[in-house]
Design brief:
Crp/Fnr family transcriptional regulator, RmlC-like_jellyroll, four-stranded antiparallel beta sheet, 31 helices
């Protein structure tokens, strides 16, 4: 096969896609990026060996610089034999790379497992030492809920020690005669490579799991809000020094903690250095001098007051001194005593005299026995609180952009979950949400955003605002405002590049509409989080990026062509003006700050171009099946994407397409001789339930197609089945399983003919292109892989 050139920075393989090729790195470096792990792959290594054990790429592969790759077709382990028969020289290279990489990955995995054990045991030891020193110095302990709820790391898929030792010994043997043993037989060679691949897959997943644990618990040691072990010790040292005690023992106890933080490079480097320097340069003796001064001053004032009372006054004076001299952040006390509603409103810039009015409104709403009542008074109150929430959200977001990397947990709870008041959700739930702010990173990935992160990406110019309910994008909206005389030409040009105006447009349109829609109960929707919404623990309901990606993956396993678009490849320098190729474009998923039951396909592309991401909208918390929500959303995407491609002729049967054929099928089902009486009755009932909306009928069939038909449980009539198979064909493993079934034999036979015709065309195109001096790139390789799926 021809070499493939990949430019620096290009992600040429996305995780979750089916393994359809292996690539030897001939020149350059590739970054292998899994959930939380990144590995550099240099020349001589083979991309895809690890992934072939799971039949899908378990990481993204990105060209770190300009890369040259040599591809090998691969779909199943049997293909190793074909590779080695046609190109025997690669047998030793494949085996050597597989063993070396398995040894490397298993070694990294073991180091991360050791780190998790060290994080857990060292944190417990430091907290126990803190408690001992508090008792010794007669200092009241500070509550530290994070350590009290700390659990040891649970290994999910840990490789046994013998497996790590086994691959290490094989790697040590190198190219000795012993390695020739595996190359004697094709099955031995394939078996050893697959065993190494499985070991690597397990190791990568376990490393990600361990890294997630470490990331979750790094704030035990160093937290941006200073709710950490270092702050506990700092506070204890200051209090002990203020009482006149010798704090040398505390200093000695802090040193291992500082060393641990430095050795493990915990937290942000700037914050880490700042905190350590702050402690090391702090003058604890100054506290003692000022405490003595307070004691003397208190003695003059107290006069004949009995000693215990005098000591009480001294303690109070010392506490005041510590507050002035030592800006401690007692996180747990703040969490328990802070008025979250006041904090959010003050952060939003609400006037002090209005805070009391807002609190009264919220308490009035909370006092309603059933928040789902729909009487006039409740509706009016709900409307007022809804307007209040969005106005507050705008102001909080604008302020948050100034310190987006250092937001306190209460503000994060508001922006990401819709939380405003402890009384509205209950103290236990508020604490759960508070703890959940440390895990918000789980709700983010390349294509998954919390609402705050999505608005932030628009504010920073990384994404454009969505279309509104009238299908106008931001520039179209400005043009409409100009046409109506509300904007002049200069104002329109200025607003086109105003990031804050773009963000407000997104809030006023997409955010408001989809927040209500994803909640599910439109008539009783209030965006402020309430105890009535929290039917389970917050963490159990949390919609993470991993859950979203898993749900998408399960749909794509059946409907493999779901996110592929036909785009034009052009290279006039080498004789190609316009060649249609298939390109996979994953949707962006935005998580609304509510506890909802619905998902939405808000728009099928981000802009005019076909190769921009769709936008799906989900609630950030739900108790409903995320998989079912995803299947329905993908069905809507299929329909709307076809409408966009077909334009005005989306329902014109003379222009064959998914939507036109489905509309024709539904419109004339009564006259269709291919449908039985029972099938016609079923269509009639579905149409009635769908209020004669043809799209909803298709979505109902699409759900059955993915959930049941793919597995051999036949729910569709023959006409619907034929249309869906032509436009939403099953992936190869499902086609192979259904090929013997009479209902599918003809359809699959036609599909194979179509695929072979396409592959012949691609082979011919590649020959002409390379003859003219062109080089195969990942775009063309992806197109070839598509027709082999």
């Amino acid at each position: 096969m021809a070499m493939i050139k990949v430019p620096a920075g290009k992600c040429f393989i996305k995780h979750g896609t089916a393994v359809n090729a292996l690539y030897m790195v001939i020149h350059g470096t590739v970054r292998q990026v899994s959930k939380l792990e990144e590995v550099q792959i240099g020349s001589g290594n083979i991309i895809g060996l690890m992934d072939c054990a799971e039949e899908e790429y378990i990481a993204d592969y990105v060209a770190a610089d300009d890369v040259t790759l040599y591809p090998f077709h691969y779909h199943a382990p049997e293909d190793f034999g074909k590779i080695f028969i046609s190109q025997p020289k690669y047998a030793a290279a494949f085996l050597s790379v597989a063993i070396r990489e398995a040894d490397h990955m298993l070694g990294r995995n073991q180091r991360f497992q050791n780190s998790t054990e060290k994080y857990y045991s060292f944190a417990l030891a430091m907290y126990q030492k803190y408690q001992e020193l508090c008792r010794k110095y007669c200092i009241q302990e500070k509550s530290f809920r994070r350590i009290e709820s700390l659990q040891p790391y649970v290994r999910t898929n840990m490789a046994p020690k013998w497996e790590a030792d086994y691959f290490h010994e094989l790697a040590e043997l190198g190219n000795s005669g012993t390695m020739d043993f595996f190359q004697q037989k094709e099955d031995l060679l394939t078996g050893q490579i697959m065993q190494a691949a499985r070991a690597m897959c397990k190791a990568v997943r376990e490393i990600d799991h361990a890294k997630e644990y470490l990331q979750e618990h790094v704030n035990l040691y160093l937290d941006t809000n200073r709710m950490d072990l270092l702050q506990l010790y700092f506070d204890m040292a200051a209090r002990a020094a203020a009482s006149g005690a010798d704090i040398e023992e505390i200093r000695q106890a802090i040193e291992p903690l500082l060393q641990f933080i430095k050795d493990n490079r915990l937290g942000d480097a700037g914050e880490r250095d700042k905190r350590i320097t702050e402690y090391q340069t702090y003058d604890f003796s100054n506290i003692k001098i000022k405490a003595d001064a307070i004691y003397n001053f208190a003695g003059e004032l107290i006069g004949e007051v009995p000693k215990p009372q005098a000591e009480d006054k001294l303690v109070q004076g010392t506490e005041d001194l510590l507050e002035q001299e030592y800006a401690e952040t007692d996180g747990e006390e703040e969490e328990e005593t802070e008025d979250c509603l006041v904090h959010i409103l003050e952060y939003a810039g609400v006037a002090a005299e209005d805070v009391h009015k807002i609190r009264s409104k919220m308490h009035e709403y909370d006092a309603i026995p059933d928040n789902f009542d729909n009487d006039e008074k409740t509706r009016k109150l709900r409307k007022e609180l809804t307007a209040l929430f969005y106005a507050t959200y705008k102001n909080v977001f604008k302020h948050a952009m100034k310190d987006a990397d250092d937001l306190d947990p209460v503000i994060q709870m508001f922006l990401n979950f819709g939380f405003m008041d402890v009384g509205m959700v209950g103290e236990d739930t508020a604490n759960e949400l508070y703890d959940l702010t440390d895990k918000l990173f789980k709700c983010k990935s390349d294509h998954v955003y919390t609402m705050f992160e999505w608005l932030k990406s628009i504010y920073e110019g990384k994404n454009e605002p969505s279309r509104n309910e009238f299908d106008l994008d931001y520039n179209g909206y400005l043009a409409e405002q100009k046409r109506m005389g509300k904007l002049d030409a200069a104002g329109m040009e200025r607003l086109k590049t105003d990031c804050w105006e773009k963000t407000k447009y997104e809030m006023n349109n997409m955010f408001v509409s989809t927040n209500r829609a994803t909640y599910g109960k439109v008539s009783t929707f209030c965006p402020i989080l309430s105890k009535h919404d929290m039917v389970q623990e917050a963490e159990k309901m949390l919609v993470t990026a991993e859950r979203i990606e898993e749900a998408i993956k399960k749909v794509r396993e059946v409907d493999y062509s779901l996110f592929y678009r036909e785009v034009i490849f052009s290279d006039p320098m080498h004789g190609v003006n316009a060649e249609p190729v298939q390109k996979e474009v994953f949707p962006d998923v935005i998580l609304m700050p509510n506890v909802g039951m619905k998902a939405m396909m808000w728009q099928e592309t981000a802009g005019v171009k076909r190769d921009t991401s769709a936008r799906f909208v989900f609630p950030v918390m739900t108790i409903y099946s995320l998989q079912d929500m995803m299947i329905e959303t993908c069905g809507r995407f299929r329909w709307e994407m076809c409408r966009k491609i077909q334009g005005m002729r989306w329902n014109d049967i003379t222009e064959k397409s998914l939507t036109s054929e489905y509309c024709d099928y539904i419109q004339y089902y009564r006259k269709n001789r291919d449908l039985s009486t029972e099938a016609k009755e079923k269509i009639k009932n579905t149409l009635w339930k769908s209020k004669n909306n043809y799209r909803e009928v298709f979505i109902s069939d699409y759900i059955g197609w993915i959930k049941y038909e793919a597995g051999g449980s036949f729910r569709l009539n023959r006409v619907a089945r034929d249309i869906l198979f032509r436009y939403c064909p099953f992936a190869k493993k499902y086609r192979d399983a259904l090929e013997a079934n009479p209902m599918y034999q003809d359809m699959i036979s036609r599909f194979k003919i179509f695929q072979e015709r396409k592959l012949r065309h691609i082979d011919g195109f590649r020959t002409r292109y390379e003859k003219n001096g062109g080089e195969m790139n990942m775009e063309l390789q992806e197109n070839m892989n598509f027709y082999n799926m």
